Automatic annotation (TrEMBL):
This is Thiopeptide-type bacteriocin biosynthesis domain. It comes from Enterococcus gallinarum. InterPro entries: Lant_deHydtase_N (IPR006827), Thiopep_bacteriocin_synth_dom (IPR023809). Residues 737-968 form the Thiopeptide-type bacteriocin biosynthesis domain. Pfam families: Lant_dehydr_C, Lant_dehydr_N. Residues 43-587 form the Lantibiotic dehydratase N-terminal domain.
Length: 977
């Protein structure tokens, strides 16, 4: 049985509405002229598309008012109109296709417009700026806020480009505290808020100005904020709210007129002019975007080779998923840094609220990125070598050759093979009488694996006929039911974009039963509002994150709304989406693309008759020689055609036409860097041959895992007893941690003259069995963390007496007693963790010995680390390579000054250290067959902790020592010592 099957007989299809024949006619002409202008003016669909996108440009076209700027814009729109299948605007159509005649619906063709969300938000902002309206509006607290000490943080804020980002808003004040308490989880009138909080003691104007500021920065949002998942569109929903205003809105009649014109247009009233609608909107409030448009089309797609293509795609999915899992599992420990922080903070046995996890102080913070850093790993380097060699020999990477077949066989032996459930493939289809069906190539579009569950057309779902709505629901319900069988609840995650165009991409209809709508109102009774406060986060034994609904105990997975907006996502938003899904089926493709990008290679990736990744190249501004550039592009892509590439957006360019190549040059001048890619070879060949019957379509096939999921990953508090070693050691049991606060300049003296002698005294008396220390810094300042192991309560009491006496003598400022959290995963040997702690004790004693010799600190530290590396018996070249990140030419002179004495001391064993406990530890690591990768991680952790004990939390000193070690290792390899 194949791992992937297509989930039903329908699929999403998109196609450009322009005719490629028109493009070829213009190419033969060589440039735009009056006859070409007449041609495109007579194309009603193109004129409509331009009118909606840029009314001023459409007016210029109708008035025959042409200049270079207007011509340039018209050509760009025209190229998009005839070659790019995008789901937005009137330049292309979105359809529901089927391969079965019995399921076909009669043809449907419909232009739909909506008021743009960006224009609507500007209008709302203008209304809220009016104190008369604002005083009678209802407001509520934004549901994406989080309080961190006395700061308020918006984890789902936005910037001017529409992307989301974490944003610290302001310090929490008493007034803000009163406002947020009154507005939490409910709407309240601003007038009531004013009376309740201020009792009319605060100037009304100042209070309203303050409320407006809170609305602007996202702490509050008003009842006018669009309601997501509504049965009405955003503008209709807005009008219903405005109708209820205590004070009539001044532009209400114009808004009704706009609504009526839009309704008439959507009901195929040909007399309605889009430019007329835009002009009326412009008179109320100006925006860069006024309308959100789409063309709905439905037709029968008859493809005699469909089942052959389907089988090929299934094999490709199965192979890439299997290899991806092999790679992902073998490299999975690269996420240990972030996951290790979680485990160290909360452990396997605690499920914590989401907001507690992302609290940058109390939790573990949001990772800067979840991109996996694998460049130094053996598997990745093997792949990298293969790709570079393939490029050198063939300029092609074939996913079907022996290298990937071996990985496929290795992956098939994995117990955890193919965890991905849902995938959607965008397949470019170029039809022509000149194409042989038996040799037809399948072209995957730039974004080849997404998790949108069919939501590309969700924002216009309600505009489709009922029969097609049922088909779309069926496509999504089959996937959702796959999850429900495993007690997994899918939740749509819909963010708020402020005054950007982002909300135009968000579906009004939610295919999932629950949604969490960040920053929006969500009042649809048919949709459950999922509160992030109900989200519990955990991590299982395989280091996989999971989310649980604390009310239902169902596992939660978040789904996003559109593949086209992968650039949108704050750290927290991105965290939710990425951690709640299994790893990407196309992880192996991501690795390949990253390697190609790293070496700036232009290479094609293929699998049988599937073109997976096209050739690409980056071009930087300025261009010294345009002719040389053209020659290079032609040689690279073997064609006069290429795409200007921007994520999922592409623009076709023919470099033999100066006007079109100048479009590319202008874009390059503006952006400074542009990625260009090859045109699909079949399409390029058809264009070169001047084929007049080319049809372009982009079919979105949905796949999901046909095999039943087993062993849903959920650990939580129920299985914590399986660990043989306790993670948390409570005070005054077998170990107590004392945090001793003392200024940095007195720490060494205190350690050597006070702390160490007293602990030695306790050990001599047999009161304590072992001890070790580290240095630390927190919000209260620098301190020592001393961990004492003893079975006698009296030992801890004696140490407390010592600390209190030190306070009286003003040697230390204070101390705290805290829980000792063991870092079990960081150092392996989970079931023999005592070996690790024994070595920590040995390392503490060695640190004390080194600290006694101030003038030889660097020499002794470097030599100890070099000996440590020798005992690990790891690949020194790999270690040197890893240490190169600390390379600093400023250290070169100082190292030259100590190089001779360092080498002499090393060769003559001048400094003798004990490695007894370390050797027992490394022996256990070898018995446990710990990988070289993990050993390197442990090595660098030990180096870090040695530097910490000697220099404290001083990153600069640590980097300097590591750089010295790197230089010495390099020297010793060169000398053969």
């Amino acid at each position: 049985m194949n791992n992937f099957i297509m989930n039903n007989d329908y699929f999403i299809c998109r196609e450009p509405l322009g005719n490629v024949t028109s493009l070829l006619n213009i190419e033969r002409n060589g440039s735009f002229n009056n006859s070409i202008y007449d041609l495109i003016k007579n194309d009603k669909q193109f004129l409509l598309a331009v009118s909606a996108a840029s009314p001023n440009l459409a007016n210029s076209l109708l008035a025959n008012n042409y200049n270079s700027k207007i011509t340039n814009s018209l050509q760009k729109y025209f190229l998009r109109y005839v070659t790019r299948a995008t789901p937005f605007g009137f330049f292309s159509a979105t359809s529901i296709g089927t391969n079965k005649l019995s399921l076909a619906n009669k043809a449907l063709y419909k232009n739909i417009i909506r008021v743009s969300g960006s224009w609507l938000n500007l209008l709302i902002n203008e209304i809220q700026s009016n104190e008369i309206y604002l005083y009678n509006l209802k407001v509520t607290l934004n549901n994406s806020l989080y309080q961190n000490n006395n700061e308020i943080i918006n984890y789902f804020s936005y910037n001017n480009e529409g992307g989301l980002k974490k944003k610290k808003i302001l310090l929490k004040t008493r007034l803000l505290e009163l406002v947020t308490d009154c507005c939490k989880n409910k709407f309240i009138k601003v007038s009531e808020l004013y009376e309740k909080i201020t009792s009319n003691s605060l100037d009304k104007h100042r209070f309203l100005k303050y409320i407006k500021e809170l609305l602007d920065i996202g702490i509050l949002h008003s009842e006018l904020t669009p309601t997501m998942n509504s049965k009405m569109n955003l503008f209709e929903d807005f009008l219903n709210k405005v109708e209820k205003f205590y004070q009539p809105y001044s532009h209400i009649n114009e808004l009704y007129e706009i609504a009526q014109l839009i309704n008439d247009f959507n009901n195929d009233c040909n007399s309605v002019c889009v430019i007329q609608i835009v002009n009326k909107m412009k008179n109320i409030v100006k925006s860069t975007r006024y309308l959100d448009c789409i063309v709905i089309n439905n037709y029968i797609m008859e493809n005699p080779n469909f089942h052959r293509e389907k089988n090929t795609l299934e094999k490709f999915l199965n192979r890439t998923a299997t290899i991806s899992n092999y790679f992902f599992n073998s490299l999975h420990k690269d996420l240990i840094d972030y996951k290790g922080k979680y485990i160290e903070k909360f452990g396997y046995d605690r499920e914590v609220p989401f907001y507690e996890m992302i609290d940058s102080i109390g939790g573990i913070g949001i990772p800067e990125t979840l991109e996996i850093d694998i460049e130094n790993k053996d598997e990745y380097q093997e792949l990298e070598s293969y790709i570079v060699n393939s490029y050198t020999l063939k300029k092609v990477i074939d996913l079907n050759d022996t290298f990937f077949q071996r990985l496929f066989r290795l992956g098939k032996n994995s117990n955890n093979c193919d965890t991905s459930i849902t995938n959607e493939l965008f397949v470019m289809d170029f039809e022509s009488e000149m194409v042989s069906n038996t040799e037809k190539t399948i072209f995957l579009s730039p974004i080849i694996g997404v998790r949108q569950i069919g939501n590309t057309i969700g924002r216009f779902f309600l505009d489709y006929p009922a029969q097609i709505q049922d088909r779309i629901k069926d496509m999504n319900n089959k996937v959702i039911k796959r999850y429900e069988k495993e007690k997994i609840e899918l939740v749509s995650l819909l963010p708020y974009f402020g005054n950007s165009s982002g909300e135009d991409l968000v579906p009004n209809y939610s295919f999932t039963k629950s949604s969490t709508v960040i920053g929006y109102n969500c009042s649809d009774k048919d949709i459950n509002q999922f509160d992030l406060n109900d989200l519990l986060v955990g991590i299982d034994r395989e280091n996989e994150f999971y989310f649980i609904n604390r009310n239902s105990n169902n596992q939660i997975k978040f789904t996003t709304f559109s593949n086209l907006n992968s650039f949108i996502g704050s750290k927290a938003y991105d965290l939710l989406l990425r951690l709640s899904y299994e790893q990407s089926t196309f992880y192996i493709i991501e690795c390949i693309v990253n390697i190609l990008r790293k070496f700036n290679l232009s290479c094609r990736v293929i699998y049988k008759n599937i073109l997976v990744v096209s050739k690409k190249m980056d071009i930087f501004y300025p261009i010294k020689d345009v002719q040389k550039l053209k020659k290079k592009i032609r040689e690279t892509f073997n064609s006069k055609y290429f795409y200007i590439q921007n994520n999922d957006n592409r623009l076709l360019i023919n470099m033999d036409i100066d006007d079109w190549f100048n479009i590319f040059l202008e874009e390059l001048k503006h952006q400074k860097k542009i990625c260009v890619s090859e045109v699909e070879p079949l399409f390029s060949d058809l264009l070169e041959k001047n084929a007049q019957d080319i049809q372009i379509k982009e079919n979105v096939y949905s796949f999901f895992n046909s095999e039943k999921l087993t062993n849903v990953k959920r650990i939580g508090q129920y299985t914590s007893s399986t660990l043989e070693v306790r993670r948390e050691l409570l005070p005054f049991e077998e170990c107590t941690q004392f945090n001793i606060y003392i200024s940095k300049e007195y720490q060494n003296s205190f350690i050597l003259k006070k702390l160490s002698p007293y602990i030695k005294h306790l050990k001599t008396q047999g009161r304590i069995t072992k001890w070790f220390f580290i240095r630390y810094i927190d919000s209260d300042g620098e301190h020592l963390r001393v961990r004492l192991f003893s079975k006698e309560q009296e030992a801890f009491q004696n140490f407390l007496f010592f600390l209190n006496k030190s306070i009286q003598e003003k040697i230390i400022s204070k101390y705290e007693i805290s829980v000792y959290n063991r870092e079990l995963e960081r150092y392996e040997c989970i079931n023999n963790y005592e070996l690790v702690e024994n070595y920590f004790c040995e390392l503490s004693e060695i640190s004390l010995k080194i600290l006694q010799y101030k003038k030889e600190l660097e020499l002794q530290t470097v030599i100890y680390i070099v000996n440590l590396i020798n005992k690990f018996q790891l690949n020194k070249q790999r270690i040197i390579q890893t240490m190169s990140v600390n390379k600093n030419i400023d250290n070169d002179k100082e190292f030259r000054n100590i190089k001779a004495i360092l080498l002499e001391s090393y060769l003559n064993n001048k400094y003798v250290f004990s490695y007894t406990r370390f050797e027992k530890y490394i022996l256990q690591l070898n018995k446990d067959h710990v990988s070289e990768l993990k050993k390197r991680e442990i090595l660098f952790s030990l180096i870090h902790m040695l530097c910490n004990r000697i220099y404290g939390p001083n990153k600069e000193a640590e980097r300097k020592i590591i750089d010295y070690v790197r230089k010495f290792l390099d020297l010793s390899l060169h000398l053969g010592v």
